[in-house]
């Protein structure tokens, strides 16, 4: 039986079921993942912004588990307003003293680690939220060369094949990589197939979030099953 190496915590929207499922599947031996839920029943801007008010209390509760790192697990909720990702991270770290990240922070760091400067985006989002994501990435120096959203709320019912088809649809020779956004959009099953087929990194909200949370915890061993990011850029990124 392996030693218990790290404990990771995630704050997820209350209707989200996919992030738990995928992170539990991806978590390497000796790493446990622990979740708490934040009330969220639609993707209106007001609802996304309201979630930040609950972050300190929920971070406090998760901190009782003596975590090594903590992640705010809603992509849209961490890029919907400029600077919100850093605001959430600061709130968590100041409240708990635990290293923290958000899914938006994680995706940017993952793109930098894999050399993705021009990205194609596949998401379940409505038009306005996709536009916010494009603007967020632009502010981080990352160009979006293609994007498409499905205008679907609570997309957990969609199959991995749907996210794969959408990724293929937005792919472009101009794109260094593909990003499949939303922690409640099933995409894990298609990552390695798409990477082999398209010949470029395929990043998702959940693979990047787990990757960056592992880094924040001090874990530096390659992880299989989540594409080249987790397999090739975990230990090297940690060791600089």
Structural summary, described in words:
It is a single chain. This protein has 240 residues and is an alpha/beta fold. Helix content is 45%, strand content 18%. The chain is built from twelve helices and eight strands. A four-stranded parallel sheet has the order 2-1-3-4, sandwiched between helices. It has a four-stranded parallel sheet with strand order 6-5-7-8, sandwiched between helices. Helix 1 links the parallel strand 1 and strand 2. Helix 3 (55-63) crosses helix 5 and helix 6 packs across helix 10 (205-217). The longest helix has 13 residues, at 84-96. The radius of gyration is 16 Å and the shape is globular. It starts with 5 loop residues before the first strand and ends with a helix. Mean pLDDT is 93; it is low at 236-240.
Number of strands: 8
Side by side, the strands of the main sheet go 2-1-3-4
Amino-to-carboxy terminus distance: 31 Å
Structural class: alpha/beta
Percent helix, as a range, is 40-55%
The fraction of residues in strands falls at: 15-25%
Low-confidence stretches: 236-240
Oligomer: single chain
* Main beta sheet strand tally, sense and closure: 4 strands, parallel
- How many alpha or pi helices? 12
- Spatial shape: globular
What's the average pLDDT? 93
Order of helices and strands: EHEHHEHHEHEHEHEHEHHH
Radius of gyration: 16 Å
């Amino acid at each position: 039986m392996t030693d218990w190496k790290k404990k990771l915590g995630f704050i997820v929207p209350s209707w989200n079921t996919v992030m738990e499922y995928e992170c539990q599947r991806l978590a390497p031996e000796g790493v446990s993942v622990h979740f708490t839920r934040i009330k969220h029943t639609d993707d209106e801007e007001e609802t996304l912004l309201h979630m930040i008010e609950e972050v300190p209390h929920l971070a406090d509760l998760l901190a009782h588990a003596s975590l090594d790192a903590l992640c705010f697990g809603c992509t849209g909720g961490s890029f919907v307003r400029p600077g919100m990702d850093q605001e959430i991270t600061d709130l968590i770290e100041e409240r708990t003293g635990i290293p923290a990240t958000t899914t938006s922070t994680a995706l940017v760091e993952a793109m930098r680690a894999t050399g993705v400067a021009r990205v194609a985006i596949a998401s379940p989002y409505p038009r306005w939220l996709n536009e916010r994501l494009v603007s967020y990435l632009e502010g981080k120096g990352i160009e979006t060369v293609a994007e498409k959203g499905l205008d679907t709320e609570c997309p957990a019912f969609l199959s991995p094949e749907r996210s794969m088809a959408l990724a293929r649809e937005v792919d472009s020779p101009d794109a260094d990589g593909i990003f499949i956004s939303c922690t409640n959009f099933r995409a894990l099953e298609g990552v390695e197939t798409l990477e082999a087929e398209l010949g470029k990194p395929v990043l998702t909200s959940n693979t990047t979030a787990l990757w960056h949370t592992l880094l924040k915890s001090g874990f530096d061993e390659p992880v299989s099953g989540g594409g080249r990011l987790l397999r090739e850029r975990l230990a090297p990124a940690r060791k600089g």
